[in-house]
């Protein structure tokens, strides 16, 4: 989003919140004479409209607000009854704080609404204990939320393309790149980069635990990989004409076009399987024309087709065919995932089943896996939920024990100023305190000057909200806190007689909340995702590195028992945790641009390369016929073991270890020919070796060696 578009979005949001808060506050206070209802009608749009990130635009945002209304009413009611004493309110805050923060496992949409929902419990759980005022509170809350929903519908943000449309556009680009060749490699890579979730608005990210979201997310990663593979294909040395590869690429283009049409129009896509059949025919042709004694990974269901000219292809052609086959596998994954997204549970289990493990599970089981998979101290989502819950509960206990005036501001400070690192929390708290100091002086002078003239505060409230809610986010934390202090002063001056000490109370509360937030940050994962991303990436490399030797063995030993893919579910789980840690790490201020850090994105790419090879090669890779051992097979096994050792060594370096082993690629034996074993295995291990060398160079800050498998 451009700076101008960002400012326009902030202005629209501030106008929506100001209108909704004003339309609810003034009539309830001055016409109905319901101060409690007016207070909740004022803070409901602020909580959901400002503190929360409501996804989508227009009607979708209005629908999200309406869906948040029932839990908001329940939290306000629960807080009202638990306000009977400090300990019950604190216990409720601990549980609710954790559950709402941990809701981030469901994706950015629930995570965006969580801070606002927290505020409804916070506001209600403070004295006075007034269960008889529950009806008035819920009335005001409902009025504020309904008005906010109406403001979203009447003043919507510009619509953004859905993830399905983004995916369809990327597939259309891939189809043009295959058939016409008019799309440059750089354009293909740029299109793939735009599919990265970090560049997709949170409202459109397929981050849920259900089959549809999982399928779309997996399809998006496959499309990105497909575009990168297409971009790299013409950059290779041009071998002799290869009719078999051209035919398979034509099938890839057809699959891309049909999947794009299904995503745009909503029509059911063709049943997957045609591309896999084309890949098997392609492999049959390779088997027929390849030099040396080779056999297919599994028997082809149809007779092989004749070659273009009957001559044995060169090693360069075989290597290019291996890359075309890997490219086709990426398109096949897209074909399967689009079918799952459109039809839900597939009629036939997609292969390999472990790669599409979610396709046959029910929605409750998928959600259980998502929750249980993140219920670990190694999950940054779990860490953030624990940190938030402890901070809010401690704030409620301190505010209640010390009987602080307007103590909910202590919790609000923890909620809005807390960050995932101690350094970032301190910077935010320092700016907030400075802004509050200036705001308190201005508000104190305002309260002294206007005294008890309620009409003057009523006139100032709406302009103060509009200015504060628009300029604050544009200018930073200090301005936001200072201007919000003015809004609070003009609002509370209409609800009850106040003096300049209101600003003093807010200053004390914000300082108390800042100290509590810093202490919680020091005690609970003070470095944010910095340390966790190293652990997660190290474990990912270890588990994925362990897939290389069994994958090589599956290609080198053509016995029926060796044709299954290695077990990859543990690696897939580690990949999820590593991606979550990396996403938080990228969002933390001051960490994402450090040149001295390892190339985490390259680690994720290498891990996915291992995972996909472990699935693809046993199914489609060329393999030798049964025969006596030879030096080439021994070298391949040694190379695979060396790649696993490389991954383990890099993992040790990431976690502070000092491994003594160095890269050790065995020399080529006399008469070595990759095609006499499996050119697919050779291409995969060569690429993997280069990727690991790049990762290690980024860790040790040494130039990457020129390595080949």
TrEMBL record:
Location relative to the cell: Membrane
Segments crossing the lipid bilayer: 15-32, 38-57, 64-83, 89-106, 433-450, 483-502, 508-527
Compositional bias (Pro residues): 293-304
Start and end residues of each Integral membrane bound transporter domain: 397-520
Sequence segments annotated as region (Disordered): 290-312, 622-641, 654-675
Keywords of the record: Membrane, Transmembrane, Transmembrane helix
Pfam family for this entry, one: FUSC_2
Protein name: FUSC family protein
């Amino acid at each position: 989003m451009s700076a101008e578009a960002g400012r326009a979005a902030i202005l629209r949001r501030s106008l929506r919140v100001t209108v909704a808060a004003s339309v609810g506050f003034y009539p309830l206070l001055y016409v109905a004479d319901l101060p409690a209802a007016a207070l909740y009608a004022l803070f409901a749009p602020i909580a959901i409209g400002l503190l929360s990130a409501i996804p989508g635009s227009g009607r979708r945002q209005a629908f999200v607000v309406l869906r948040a209304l029932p839990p908001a009413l329940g939290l306000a009611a629960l807080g009202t009854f638990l306000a009977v004493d400090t300990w019950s309110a604190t216990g409720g805050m601990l549980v609710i704080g954790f559950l709402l923060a941990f809701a981030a496992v469901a994706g950015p949409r629930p995570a965006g609404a969580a801070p606002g929902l927290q505020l409804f419990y916070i506001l209600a759980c403070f004295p006075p204990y007034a269960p008889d005022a529950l009806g008035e509170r819920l009335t005001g809350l409902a009025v504020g939320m309904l008005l906010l929903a109406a403001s979203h519908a009447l003043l919507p943000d510009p619509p953004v393309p859905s993830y399905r449309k983004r995916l369809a556009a990327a597939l259309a680009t891939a189809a043009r790149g295959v058939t016409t060749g008019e799309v440059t490699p750089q354009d293909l890579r740029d299109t793939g980069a735009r599919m990265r979730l970090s560049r997709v608005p949170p409202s459109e990210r397929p981050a849920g635990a259900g089959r549809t979201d999982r399928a779309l997310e997996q399809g998006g990663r496959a499309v990105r990989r497909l575009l990168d593979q297409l971009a790299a294909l013409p950059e290779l040395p041009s071998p002799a004409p290869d009719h078999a590869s051209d035919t398979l690429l034509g099938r890839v283009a057809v699959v891309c076009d049909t999947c794009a049409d299904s995503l745009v129009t909503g029509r059911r896509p063709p049943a997957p399987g045609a591309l896999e059949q084309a890949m098997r025919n392609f492999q049959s042709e390779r088997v027929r024309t390849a030099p040396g004694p080779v056999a297919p990974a599994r028997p082809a269901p149809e007779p092989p087709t004749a070659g273009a000219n009957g001559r044995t292809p060169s090693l360069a052609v075989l290597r290019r065919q291996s890359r075309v086959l890997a490219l086709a596998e990426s398109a096949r994954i897209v074909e399967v995932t689009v079918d799952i997204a459109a039809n839900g549970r597939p009629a036939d289990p997609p292969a390999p089943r472990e790669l599409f493990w979610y396709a046959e599970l029910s929605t409750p089981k998928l959600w259980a896996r998502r929750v249980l998979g993140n219920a670990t101290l190694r999950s940054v989502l779990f860490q953030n939920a624990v940190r938030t819950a402890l901070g809010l509960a401690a704030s409620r206990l301190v505010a209640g024990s010390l009987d602080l005036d307007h103590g909910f501001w202590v919790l609000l400070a923890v909620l809005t100023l807390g960050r995932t690192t101690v350094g970032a929390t301190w910077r935010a708290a320092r700016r907030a305190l400075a802004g509050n100091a200036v705001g308190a002086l201005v508000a104190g002078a305002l309260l002294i000057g206007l005294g008890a003239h309620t009409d003057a505060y009523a006139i100032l409230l709406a302009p103060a909200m509009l200015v504060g809610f628009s300029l604050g986010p544009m200018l930073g934390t200090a301005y936001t806190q200072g201007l919000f202090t003015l809004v609070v002063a003009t609002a509370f001056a209409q609800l009850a007689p106040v003096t300049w000490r209101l600003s003093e109370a807010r200053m004390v509360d914000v300082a108390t909340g800042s100290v509590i937030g810093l202490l919680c940050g020091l005690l609970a994962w003070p470095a944010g995702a910095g340390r966790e991303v190293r652990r997660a990436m190290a474990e990912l490399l270890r588990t994925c590195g362990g897939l290389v030797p069994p994958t090589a063995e599956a290609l080198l030993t053509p016995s029926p028992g060796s044709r299954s893919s290695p077990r990859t579910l543990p690696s897939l789980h580690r990949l999820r945790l590593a991606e979550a840690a990396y996403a938080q790490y990228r969002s933390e201020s001051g960490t994402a641009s450090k040149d001295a850090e390892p190339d985490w994105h390259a680690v994720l790419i290498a891990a996915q390369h291992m995972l996909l090879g472990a699935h693809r090669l046993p199914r489609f890779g060329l393999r030798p016929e049964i025969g006596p051992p030879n030096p080439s097979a021994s070298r391949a096994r040694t190379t695979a073991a060396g790649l696993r050792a490389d991954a383990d060594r890099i993992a040790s370096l990431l976690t502070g270890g000092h491994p003594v082993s160095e890269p050790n690629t065995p020399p080529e034996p006399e008469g070595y020919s990759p095609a006499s074993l499996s050119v697919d295995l050779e291409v995969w291990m060569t690429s993997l070796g280069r990727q690991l060398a790049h990762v290690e160079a980024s860790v040790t800050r040494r130039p990457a060696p020129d390595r080949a498998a």
